[in-house]
Every structure is written in structure tokens, then in C-alpha cells.
Specification:
single chain, about 120 residues, mainly beta, 7-stranded mixed β-sheet
């Protein structure tokens, strides 16, 4: 089992920045690729970004490419999502997830956090 806890969400103005964190406990964190997904009200959950076990590969959704940056610290069992130039359409609950596969597909992710709300509004 892997337990994931997100933090760092909040209210930010358009153009602002937030840094999300996801702390993992349980089985070996470095054994898992990690991903961030988001779900806006009335919409399906969508892929945001994934990072491989050793952080040598990342893959971003087109909607966040150039604005968001994923990173991980395997010594701290934590994955981060730095979000810059935020837009109102980035408003959603953000979830981190763990997978034994490097994948942008949510069914491949076995463990999920509870989510953290990000609201971009003036």
C-alpha cells in the first residue's frame, strides 16, 4: 500500500503561482512513477503530468506545458508540482497518483491522494 497526501492548494490570482506537494508513505516511493491529475467541477478527471521513477522522463499535457513543472525527491518521498502563470481554467481539484507504469492514463494508477483544491480567480 502507498498513502498519498497532497498539500499546497489554495486561491491565487490569474498569473500567479502555486507549488503543490504530495507526500508518500508505505511501500518504496522510488518504485513508482508519479502523476498529477485534476478534475474541474462538472468535468471528467484529466491528466496533467507524469514523472518516471528516477525522474529522467516527464510528460505534460499540452494545456500546462511550459507553465507547470513536476519534480520528485525520492529521499523525501515527495513529488512536487510547480504551477506558474496560472489561468482560471486551471481551477480544479488536483490529485497525485502512483503507478508502476510510466503513463498518462489514469487507469494505470493504483494509488491516489485525496486531492487539493486550486482556485484561480481575481
Amino acid at each position: 500500500q502507498v498513502q498519498l497526501v497532497e498539500s499546497g492548494g489554495g486561491l491565487v490570482q490569474p498569473g500567479g503561482s502555486l507549488r503543490l506537494s504530495c507526500a508518500a508513505s508505505g511501500r518504496t516511493f522510488s518504485s513508482y512513477a508519479m502523476g498529477w491529475f485534476r478534475q474541474a467541477p462538472g468535468k471528467e478527471r484529466e491528466f496533467v503530468v507524469t514523472i518516471s521513477r528516477s525522474a529522467d522522463r516527464t510528460y505534460y499535457a499540452d494545456s500546462v506545458k511550459g507553465r507547470f513543472t513536476i519534480s520528485r525527491d525520492n529521499a523525501k518521498n515527495t513529488v512536487y508540482l510547480q504551477m506558474n502563470s496560472l489561468k482560471p481554467e486551471d481551477t480544479a481539484v488536483y490529485y497525485c497518483a502512483a503507478s508502476t507504469y510510466y503513463s498518462g492514463s489514469s487507469p494505470h494508477y493504483e494509488y491516489w491522494g485525496q486531492g487539493t483544491q486550486v482556485t484561480v480567480s481575481s
